[in-house]
Amino acid sequence: MQCCPACNARLGAATLCPRCGAELKQIVRSERVAQQWLSVSLQSAEAGRLDLAVPAVLRSLSFKQTPAAKLLRGFLVQRLYRTLYDTVAQQRWPEARDILGHLQMLEGQNETLRRFDEMIGQLSVKSAANSSGD
Ligand SMILES: [Zn+2]
After folding, report:
1. pLDDT digits over 3-21, tens only?
2. Fewer beta carbons within 10 Å, N or C terminal of the chain?
3. How far apart are the CA of 123 and the centre of ligand 1, in A?
């Protein structure tokens, strides 16, 4: 590490920043943990387990906001939206709700997700009424 990530002071071999007093061992450890969660997320995504990939990438980002983790989050959002459209088209409501939940974890609540939630609510009630023979 060349510079303190907190205040940008130049560092020697010190584990404590001489300017701002940041504990650098802690920061280095966070970077390592962030990297580990990022690989868990990547492997889960490759295995098609988005339910595991989503919390893992969030865990990684909570330790460090690396460009790689941000990129993976963006990729997961895209993939989840695509799956959401598919599940809605095929009227797989419980699955659609799960995916909506994952998107809310990644993006927070927003207008698009709120509309999807509303639409899934209405359509699933309607299809339940239809299948009961009313
Ligand atoms: Zn510092």
Report:
1. 887 888 888 777 888 899 8
2. C
3. 55
What pLDDT band is residue 132 in, cutting at 50, 70 and 90?
A: low
Using the mean position of ligand 1's atoms as its centre, give its distance from the Cα of residue 107 in Å: 31
Q: Is-contact 106 76, C-beta < 8 A?
A: yes
Site of tokens 């809605």: 88
Residue-level pLDDT at 1: 52
Measure 16 CA to ligand 1 centroid, in angstroms: 8
CA of 6 from ligand 1 middle (Å) equals: 5
Q: State the Cα–Cα distance between residues 66 and 61, nearest whole angstrom.
A: 7
For the whole prediction, is pTM greater than 0.85?
no
Q: Residues 5, 27: contact at Cβ < 8 Å? A: yes
Average pLDDT along the chain:
91
Question: What is the rounded distance in angstroms from the CA atom of residue 85 to the CA atom of residue 116?
Answer: 10
Q: How far is the CA of 13 from the centre of ligand 1 (A)?
A: 13
Q: Give me ligand 1 centre to Cα 24, in Å.
A: 9
CATH code at 24-131: 1.25.40
Q: Is the pLDDT of residue 77 over 70?
A: yes
